[in-house]
Amino acid sequence: IQMTQSPSSVSASVGDRVTITCRASQGINSWLAWYQQKPGKAPKVLIYAASSLQSGVPSRFSGSGSGTDFTLTISSLQPEDFATYYCQQANSFPRTFGQGTKLQIK
Amino acid sequence: QVQLQESGPGLVKPSETLSLTCTVSGGSISRYYWSWIRQPPGKGLEWIGYISYSGSTNYNPSLKSRVTISVDTSKNQFSLNLSSVTAADTAVYYCARDYYDDSGSFLYFDYWGQGTLVTVSS
């Protein structure tokens, strides 16, 4: 299953609302996770099952969608949110990731 | 707190075999599934494959002919062998734990190692 994210990069300011989309090449129900990765670090899960917030993750992060189209929304950007975000389908093998969306400071 | 640590050579020659080990501490390797994931410099994430504590495996078809993942429960370790490497295999290699819900459905990778850069070059 191919996962396609858009945009590939986005520039935004602290306090902005940002939405990243992820499209699966075939239906995956709600079997989707979102990760945040900072330079030199391993990815960290933010959202699983499309809309469930991982414990300890700030509530400004939210996820939605099912089937083939999904979104990750950050309601009010904080300085620590500037990173690269990946979606990953958990529906079938091989497990696949989107190509990433780099969130940069405007 | 579960911790994972990758170890192995940082430089491998073309056509040789890349070998890495992931040591799990702070928890048992039993009752879980464990994956290898890689990330070429400046690029995205690619799942290589997984192994269960009992030794069952599943590999990415794109690498299947060259990959072997094994587990040593006595040492709380699992390992990756990737044969016939080329420059395209240069990447940061991560080990990670697969997290499943109570019904046995895979949800996400919950614990990750810090990653180790392996460069393929003569």
Overall description:
The complex is a heterodimer of chains A (106) and B (122). In chain A, 0% of the residues lie in helices and 50% in strands. Chain A has strands spanning 3-6, 9-12, 18-24, 32-37, 44-48, 52-53, 61-66, 69-74, 84-89, 96-97, 101-105. Chain A is globular. The mean pLDDT of chain A is 97. Chain B contains no helices and eleven strands. Chain B has strands at residues 3-7, 11-12, 18-25, 33-39, 46-52, 57-59, 67-72, 77-82, 91-100, 106-112, 116-120. Chain B is globular and about 45 Å long. Classes of the chains: A mainly beta (106), B mainly beta (122). The A-B interface holds A 31, 33, 35, 41-45, 48-49, 54, 86, 88, 90, 93-100 and B 35, 44-47, 58-62, 94, 96, 99, 105-110, 112-115.
Which features characterize this protein?
heterodimer, A: 106 residues, mainly beta, 7-stranded mixed sheet, 4-stranded antiparallel sheet, 11 strands, B: 122 residues, 0% helix
Mean pLDDT of chain B: 96
**What order do the helices and strands of chain A follow?**
EEEEEEEEEEE
Oligomeric state of the chains present here: heterodimer
User: Which residue ranges of chain A are poorly predicted, with pLDDT under 50 across at least 5 consecutive positions?
Assistant: none
Radius of gyration of chain B: 14 Å
Radius of gyration of chain A: 13 Å
DSSP helical segment count of chain A: 0
Poorly predicted parts of chain B: none
Brief overview, please?
The complex is a heterodimer of chains A (106) and B (122). Chain A has 106 residues and is mainly beta.
